[in-house]
Amino acid sequence: MWPFSQKHRPQPGKTPGVPVIDNRLDHTPKTETPHGSKELMDNLLTTEQTLENISGVDLALLQDLITETKTFDKVLETLEHTVKQQGPATLSIDKYNGSVEDAYNLLKNTVGQSPDINIRRFFLGRKHRIPAVLIFNDGLADNQMIDQDTVFLMQRYENAEELWDQGPKIHQYVHDSLVSVGHATVENEWTKLLPKMMGGNTLVFIQGAAEVLVLDTVKYPARAIETPQTERAIKGPQESFNEVVLTQMNLIRRRIKNPALHFDKLSIGTYTKTMTIIAHIEGVANPELVMAVKRRLRRVKLDGLQYSNTLTPYLTTHAASLFPQVRTSERVDIVVRDLIQGKVAILVDNTPYTLTVPATFIDFYQTTDDYTGSYWNASLERIIRLVGLFVGLLLPPLYVAFVSVDPDLLPLKLVLTIAGSREAVPFPPVLEVLIMWIIVEILREAAIRLPKGLSTTLGTVGAIVVGTSIVKAGIVDSIMIIIITLTALGLFTSPSYEMATPWRILFWVLITASYFLGLYGIVLTTLIILAHLSSLENFGVAYFSPFGPIRFRDLKDSWLKYPTSALNKRPVYLRSVKPQQMSKNIPRPMKNPQLYSTQKEELNDDIR
Amino acid sequence: MMTFASIGRLWAKIVTLLVIGLTLGGCWDNRPVDYRALIFTIGFSPGPKPGELKMLFQFPTPPAMAQYSKGSGASGSSPVGNVTGEGPSVARCFNAAQAQVSRDLYLGQIQIVAVSTKLSAPLFYSSLNSLDRTGAFDKTPFMFATAQSLKKVASFPTTQNNFPSLYYVDLFSCMHCQTDSLGVRFWQFASDVATPGVDPYLPQVSLASKPNHVLVNRVALYRHLTYVSTLNPQNTMTLGILKGLAHKVSLFLPRQQATLRAIHGSSRLQVQDRHGHISAMFHVVLSSTLEGIGTQTETAAQLALLSHEGSEILARRCLTLLEKTQKLDVDPFGVGRNLDWHHPESFLAIKHWHKEYPKVHMTVHVQLKIHKMGDLK
Q1: pLDDT number for residue A35
Q2: The CA-based dihedral angle spanning residues B237, B238, B240, B243, taken in that order and rounded to the nearest 10 degrees
Q3: Is residue B181 part of a domain?
Q4: d(CA A573, CA A366)
């Protein structure tokens, strides 16, 4: 039953001493619907009735139009009413005016149209009842907190009269003494209130209050903290970020328990209002770098921000470059390591992939395992990655160059083997590479899209088709199978997925160059790539550092990894305000403990 | 801000760079290796008409290459195809040969250059010159001379390799496999031809009828590009010792019934000009292994004696060879070149080195060291 009906409504002036509530809920607002829309709707309804009698006419479109017109009519009605209620134009239309009835109407006719938004009217206080309205997003807000910590307490409150005496400060009293929700704030601008409600907060409108209570009841379903899928590590932590930015912050905070860790909040996206966090460690990261990141992100004007990668062009000086200049990672330990190095991390709500800037070329070839194993192991693995890159990138172009353009550079026995194996092949080498690589790319794409179980089958089928049948059919020669297999494996030795993409594209450039210009073309293209890499710069940091410009100190953690004791300083290119990250020498107290003499003494004691 | 003029200039630069890049020599030579007839051996001999050249182009046949890549043995048919071209120049011979083959005759993989000893110096010169100017030719193939039919020698089947050219390449490229490392590459031969004070030489290949095999144990001596003579196998070994190319030379000492094997070592030539008298001294330091001796066991004194005797015999042989070359007016040891290096004014004063070479006073010092292998009982 509607509690604001005539029957239950307290009559003003009947009970002395009882505060009189200006009842604006009682009378139905006699707002005049704009003539235009009313007439239009009447016409539409008449038309619908007419058309219903005519068979073969699709009425769905007309019905949609009528529904939209009704909604529009309501919005106009609310707007008109709100404007009228403001009286003299001293208050902004964006401000809550203290009337729960107006708030109810506004909400009901706007966001209330949506089925996931719940609006509830109730009375604050048991005896003396003050009208109130509560609105929350069903699914994003914790129902238990709303029921038990908010509505239940407010409805059962005994001293509502005392509350009423607070006048416009009534919300403050409720905030301080009534609701038991941990985090509550106040706000009175609709443009701020509605996004907060959409994010899972509960809004409580109290009659006469100047502000609206914003209760933090946010609780939405989130994925558990799982093992990283895209950056696997043999040793090291197995935690990855999930989609909730708060959890992301918690995971970082758990590892950096220092007040110097700063999280600066930013809301990006006109519609999505995505919470974006800029994280850095004060006293380590260069303040100029932090400021530059903030300035760049503040300039982002987007309708919606769903993925962290959307911000990449704003954080990149050379956005057209093939090479990734912002590192993306779902691994908590990598982001924490970057922060400790003096980089800036950008966490985006609803995306488990965090961005870190500035990133250099070598960053994309460093993994967690490099720091969890011995430095010998790390160096070996990095060299294998480099060899993998060269093999993957250059093997097919070299094959095309040597077989098609420069066969004079091949050793005698190899040229005999290649020429012999190609005797029955109908296609030139470049076409062979094209066929094989297209097959590999199709298999790769299909393996990603298919469910896990099927992708294994696909791999087997692919191996049979590619490895056996295609050679037997005489479409490609057996050497090409070896080359393409090594290429596919080599290009994916890159630990970072985004770094594999530019090489896959440049692979084609090299193939084309080798086809037309032979070995000269490969050398020329490689030089162009190196020149491009050397020219890239982001946030004042050379992308090809420490190779170009050469930074001898940083070379200790590049393709070769030196022992941890040698990495006592932060990278030069980051220009950290605290260059030293550990003491130079590892102290070794009790280097040679006297185990034997201690044992002997103990044994002697026992004998005695 | 970029103006139209600056954009135009930028485009002009880009186009110029592209054109330069794309028109570089050899860049458009795109033809897969299986579309080419890979010439492994090229041969030069005098043509039927005077002043004409007869060239041999030998390439592996496609079925033989396919079998080779699969690792299977040789088939019944010949693994190589031979085409010959005759004409006054290399280009004409090449055209004549190309007309007989459906595939592109490719000169970028030449491994062997065979030369007939009957080839006249002018023809040899023009052939070398033309070959040198061929773009794809890399000047590293081995050369040999033969007095027999080039086609026969170049196509002679061996049991050791699928292709005859592979046999010769393996033979010449393995320095320590032969008695003397006789391999001469094209650039070495050309260098000796062009350098005053030294005469080139080539290993000479001959086919023995009984038993049926290839013999590469002699050296053809040239005076500039004119064939002069061929050394016998023993002199060839001695030439190897004097040039420091000996690896598996053996020596039998009849008095002690001793056999020395694996004689190898270095040789140093010292040329001096004493008041117009030129003298050349060869310091040869050799090592060898005692394979057997009549007494079954050897003593230190015996070894010293063997060493002394062996040194004497080898020194005598070397001197004989040197005298022979002096009689032939051929300087394959580069005595004149050495003189030019150390006494250029003396060498420049000599008008014709070939007239001076026979007058050079030759001395040979051989120091042979013997390693015993243990007692054989």
Answers
A1: 52
A2: 180
A3: yes
A4: 16
Both A444 and A485 in one domain: the answer is yes
**Cβ of residue A397 closer than 8 Å to a chain B Cβ:** no
Among B24, B58, B65, B110, most A C-beta atoms within 10 A, so best to mutate, is: B65
- A356-406 tens-digit pLDDT: 999 999 999 999 989 998 999 999 999 999 999 999 999 999 999 999 888
Question: Measured between beta carbons, which residues in chain B are less than 8 angstroms from residue A420?
Answer: 62, 64-70
pLDDT tens across B250-281, in order? 899 888 888 888 899 999 999 998 888 899 99
> A399, A400, A409, A412: which to substitute to probe chain B, counting the most B Cβ within 10 Å?
A412
Q: Domain boundary at B197, B216, B231, which? A: B231
Contacts of A410 in chain B (CB under 8 A): 33, 109
Contacts of A415 in chain B (CB under 8 A): 33, 38, 109
Q: Which of A404, A417, A516 sits opposite B31 (nearest CB)?
A: A404
pLDDT given at position A511: 93
Give me the count of residues in chain A. Answer: 608
Choosing among B34, B59, B80, B134, which should be mutated to test the A contact, i.e. which has the most A CBs within 10 A?
A: B34
What residue in B sits closest to A520 (Cα-Cα)?
B27
Domain end point (choices A307, A338, A359):
A359
**What is the mean predicted confidence (pLDDT) over A227-243?**
89
- B209-221: burial string, b at 16+ Cβ within 10 Å, e else: eeeeebebbbbbb
B69 → closest Cβ in A404, A420, A428: A420
Nearest to A423 among B24, B28, B34 (CB): B34
Say which residue, A332 or A82, is predicted with more confidence: A332
B109/A412 CB distance under 8 A: yes
Shared domain for A380 and A523, answered yes or no, is yes
Tell whether A393 and A526 lie within a shared domain: yes
Cα dihedral B39/B43/B48/B50 (nearest 10): 120
Looking at the partner chain, which of A417, A428, A515 has a beta carbon nearest the beta carbon of B69?
A417
Question: B27, A521: Cβ pair inside 8 Å?
Answer: yes
Cβ A456 vs Cβ A327: under 8 Å: no
Give me the total of CB pairs closer than 8 Å, taking one residue from chain A and one from chain B: 93
Residue A489 CA to residue A494 CA, distance in Å, equals 10
Cβ contact, residue pair B40, A420, below 8 Å: no
Task: Convert the pLDDT of each residue in A40-70 to its tens digit.
Answer: 667 777 777 776 666 566 667 777 777 777 7
Q: What angle do CA A551, A555, A561 make, to 5 degrees?
A: 165
Establish if B25 belongs to a structural domain.
no
Interacting residues of A55 by C-beta distance below 8 A, sequence separation 6+: none
Is the same domain home to B215 and B81? Answer: yes
Q: Answer yes or no: is B8 within a domain.
A: no
CA distance A42 to A109: 20
For the entire predicted model, the pTM comes to 0.76
Taking the mean position of all CA atoms in its chain, how far away is CA A37? 43
A546: closest CA among A529, A518, A570? A570
How many domains does one find in chain B?
A: 2
Chain A residue with the nearest C-alpha to that of B31: A404
Q: B204 and B219 in contact (C-beta within 8 Å)?
A: yes
Is residue A33 over pLDDT 60? no
Name the helix (H) or strand (E) containing A203. Answer: strand A202-206
CB B222 within 8 A of CB B330: yes
Tally of domains in chain A: 4
Using CA of residue A596, residue A598, residue A599, residue A600, what is the dihedral sign? positive
Residue B3 has pLDDT above 80, yes or no: no
Residue B108 to residue A422, Cβ atoms within 8 A? no
List the structure tokens of B128: 């070398």
| Domain span holding position A323 | 245-359
Cβ distance of A422 and B31 shorter than 8 Å? no
